[in-house]
Design a protein that fits this description.
- The structure is a single chain.
- It contains two helices and 22 strands.
- The protein has 504 residues and is mostly beta strands.
- Strands 7, 11, 12 and 13 form a four-stranded antiparallel beta sheet that branches. Strands 14, 15, 19 and 20 form a four-stranded antiparallel beta sheet that branches. A three-stranded antiparallel beta sheet has the order 1-6-5, with no helix packed on it.
- A hairpin with a 4-residue loop joins strand 17 and strand 18.
């Protein structure tokens, strides 16, 4: 007869395999374009469907093109390019949760006509699945002696998402001919759990490029802080939460109010925040067991669970130099930075520090006096930033989200650029832990009944009363009652006496 079993849940997080895929973007235009000066792009995931073995999802690549016309005018085109992709993994099951991230690693201009601009984008997909894994444990049964233990396990409370609007305003106190574009990024600074809610603190950094009446290109940054409470049933102050944020760039609204000496720019920026909450609980399990009457067939099940750790945020500066190719016209003046695109290629922990590696690609538009024409070049610079990480858990993995702001480019000696920028990094840590429980026990052959009334037991140093009782198949209480003068665990080898009650 098998003993009864029960189940408990543990949180599991699995990283999905990073993969590349291509997207063709076709941008309609009715303007005669001489040059594409800059391409600013970002990808956002919109709909996710989880099936057994597959995660299907779709989204859009938001593209902002800066161009010049044959008569020297500079303008912008904004467009949304749809895409879809998937992950295949045998561990994916219906009912799980997923966080999917897509970065545009490269975006090439393939063709420009009078009505269409064709772009080929190389995207990189990554993400995690989060779910509750079931673990089977046995329950005490009649005639079976059990030794119980308290096991700490992490459980998934749940997830929630919310979309809210951050209002941002900038006043320009000089005559402005045209606002060319705005681009916003979001950075999470702190995440805290409360009773049935998760509080998320962050910043939205917006960059605005405009042209003054004196035909001077200017860039302005404006930062708005936010704190949003997202309802999530079951969370407590002791829970640990993680948060992801993105901006719905195709829904950003820009209102311009002209003033006597300039204008006011008001941005309404929709921010999507998704949170997951985890809690540490105590689970009572059978650590060891035996029967006084029957042999037991026992099976042990090992399981993996994920312990979510507190996230950290930090800022860092990056800089570097870039030299123009000899075939490109020299730089007489940097006119403006069209856009800065960033992708994270790796994140890891080493010697008490968290590291984030990636590449920035910055579009720089410059003037060549000899031809009196605008030219553009992409400054591509790798970076590595780090910060102290107070992490004690082994086998820790890290996910990072990085926002770039305060980008500045200056020219040196006509062919060399110096680049610097600020990065806002949010690092989220978690570690995998292995546990084991007795998951199955069944009675088999019955022990042969002893015909002796007294037994001398040779017990070894270090043995507990449980060890001795299991060895001779009596209840642990018998060892204590019949050997009251003995202290366990044994400090030396000891002879114990056990009496058996004989019935006629």
């Amino acid at each position: 007869m098998a003993l009864e079993t029960n189940k408990f849940n543990v949180a599991r997080k699995k990283r999905l395999e990073k993969q590349q895929f291509g997207v063709e973007c076709n941008v309609s235009t009715e303007i005669e374009i001489d040059k594409i000066l800059s391409v600013c792009h970002s990808a956002q995931v919109e709909n996710v469907e989880i099936l057994n073995g597959t995660v299907n999802y779709n989204g859009t690549i938001e593209v902002c093109l800066l161009y010049s016309t044959p008569d020297g005018e500079v303008g912008t085109i904004n467009s949304s390019c749809p895409f879809s992709s998937k992950f295949d993994d045998k561990d994916i099951k219906v009912g799980q949760k997923a966080h999917i991230k897509v970065d545009v690693e490269e975006c090439k201009i393939e063709n420009v006509t009078a009505s269409n601009i064709k772009l080929d984008c190389v995207c990189v997909q990554s993400g995690t699945i989060v779910f509750s894994g079931e673990v089977t444990k046995i329950e005490p049964g009649e005639g079976v002696c059990t030794k119980r233990d308290e096991m700490l396990v992490d459980v998934l409370i749940g997830d929630a998402s919310e979309t809210f609007v951050v209002e941002s305003q900038l006043s320009i106190r000089e005559p402005v001919k045209k606002v060319l574009f705005s681009d916003s990024q979001v950075a999470i600074k702190n995440v805290e759990c409360g009773t049935n809610f998760v509080a998320v603190d962050g910043e939205v950094v917006s960059r605005i490029l405009y042209l003054t009446e004196k035909d001077r290109f200017e860039t302005a940054y404006v930062t708005e802080s936010f704190k949003e409470e997202i309802e999530l049933e079951g969370t407590t102050r002791d829970a640990v939460c993680e948060a992801y944020a993105c901006i719905k760039k195709n829904m950003v609204k820009c209102e311009i109010d002209s003033q006597e000496k300039g204008l006011d720019i008001k941005l309404s920026i929709p921010v999507v925040v998704k949170v997951f909450a985890y809690e540490e609980k105590t689970e009572s399990v059978v650590k060891d067991l035996y029967s006084t009457k029957y042999e037991l067939e026992v099976s042990t099940e090992s399981f993996e669970m994920t312990k979510q750790l507190v996230s950290e945020s930090f800022e860092s500066k990056i800089d570097g130099s870039f030299v123009l190719d000899a075939t490109q016209p020299r730089v007489d003046k940097v006119m403006f930075v069209g856009g800065a695109n960033l992708s994270v290629t790796n994140a890891y922990l080493k010697d008490g520090e968290v590291f984030a590696e990636g590449v920035t690609k910055t579009n720089v538009i410059y003037l060549n006096d000899e031809t009196n024409s605008l030219h553009s070049v992409i400054i591509e610079l790798p970076f590595v930033v780090s910060d102290k990480a107070d992490i004690e858990c082994t086998n820790t993995e890290v996910e990072v989200d990085v926002a770039i702001c305060d980008v500045d480019v200056v020219v040196k000696k006509g062919r060399e650029f110096y680049f610097d920028a600020k990065l806002k990094i949010n690092a989220q840590y978690y570690c995998s832990q292995i546990g084991a429980v007795i998951s199955y026990a069944q009675q088999s052959a019955q022990y042969q009944e002893s015909d002796c009334a007294i037994q001398l037991v040779f017990a070894s140093e270090g043995q507990s009363a449980w060890d001795v009782a299991k060895m001779i198949r009596v209840e642990e209480e018998v060892i204590y009652l019949q050997n009251p003068e003995v202290v366990f665990p044994l400090e030396k080898d000891t002879n114990l006496i056990v009496y058996y009650q004989k019935r006629n």
